[in-house]
Fold:
Amino acid sequence: MGFEFWMFLSLVYVSHFHFHGLSLAEKAPYYSFVHEATMAPEVSFYDYIIIGGGTAGCPLAATLSESANVLVLERGGSPYENPTKPDKGNFFPNLLDVSPSSYAQEFTSEDGVYNARARVLGGGSVINAGFYSRAEPEFLKQAGLNEALVNYSYQWVEKKIAFEPPMLQWQSALRDGLLEAGVLPNNGFTFDHIYGTKIGGTIFDGDDHRHTAADLLEYANPYRIKVYLHATVEKIIFETEVFSRTRAQGVVFEDELGKKHWALLTKDYKSEVILSAGALGSPQLLMLSGIGPSQQLKKFGIKVVMDQPMVGQGLVDNPLNVLLVPSPSPVELSLVSFVGITRFGSYIEACSGISFTPSWSRSVAKALAAILNQTEQSSTKLFQEGILNPESLLDTRIRGGIIFEKVKDPISSGYLELRNMNPRDNPKVTFNYFQAPEDLMKCVHGVKIAIDAVYSKSFSNFRYEILSAKALLELIVNLPLNQRPRHLTSAFSLEKFCMDTVMTIWHYHGGCRLGKVVDRDYKVLGVEALRIVDGSTFTSSPGTNPQATVMMLGRYMGLKILQERYFGKYRKK
Structure:
């Protein structure tokens, strides 16, 4: 990688502790540099303007701020306003919250699958199931990333926000069931991606408090960074002189009151605008700024800065299918603590004792009653803990768990199109789930493994004998999990079950793919001073759950960009 780069790393390390010492962790909710966008000046200048304070944007900004002046524009609010809201027990309530100030902006894909997009400082790490696991070596090799710097960057993230999860009764029984089902060997606890069954990391601490990418801003130099909340970027501003390459100059953003602000790059030619708005936000904003398929841009009257037909293409969502398993025994509150990594391309994960809304609990009770020929009141007792207050989301806990099956590296891919010119609205998204038969076969095989684990000896204390495998499938088929039509044979045919009940695991990626829209340095092809650092550049979803690698990439690219700024073009090795 070069002696001068490691010298640069040491300088960054020293400058970090010169500014922060070792006590800044106590100050996480009180960042002095985070403000509402209404407080932003009408015009301001920065070395780096980062669009999106999410899973990649926060570590990227923290790193760049060590040696440059940085602005972060986040369209959502702060997770620190209500410190307990992101915690483990509120996982599903937060995803189901449709209020204007919610952490998740709901949308439904053109495939009829319900989905959500984060809008909060910290991004998806504020609303996900918290599992932390590194990428497989093949992903890192394909992306051309340096192994030593990758490991250094992972460790930088893990020092702040990664923990070993507790393995209590329900999770332990299901893990042992997976081992019985043949997902071998037992790899114990590790962050690494290894075939078999393993306990991975979590971003929840021992008190079930969530630690997010926003916590990585503790590393930032507070004198060189500004973060504006509820700042919606309308477009990137470009300089398009004759005989010169198009160059990013800054952005226009709007605060919560509708006032416009201009953030511009300093005159230093190494200054950049960096998109970190995610797999939906980054391609959407490129199009709104005039970079994308010209035919689509002209349809909305957008001036074409550069015709780039690959923007929005190659968008992929890993299909998810689930089993809901009521338990005769009490279960712990748990989100994803372990994973079964199969060799045929399926991941098995699970959660237990989570909170449902009262309406969802009634849906489950009604579906169970129909299957067992019971009353709703009787069937409710099969899966639900006592409700102290029916109006409280937090007291509506299920006695049982949900087992997830995720298809790895789906071949099926889709695309993103503009719905309108409002950057606050989600674009039109099509994922084409199971268009490739190979993806469907992975799902079928994975669901079979999940069923085998449920009916294993190890898991026998946490299932009802009266509920057959067919009954568990029928329960899912009868729940309003998506808007897709149901086949009459959905509970009998695993192929139909996978297609009819497919959901999202929120690991969608692509739309600004490496080699198609950005180069190996994540610079937008054909444009100066513009990069994209987020999951929109991925050709596949890294590891079992992408957040670890997205955060790592923010740190990794921050160091690379600073090295380029001060030492010239960085070396690959």
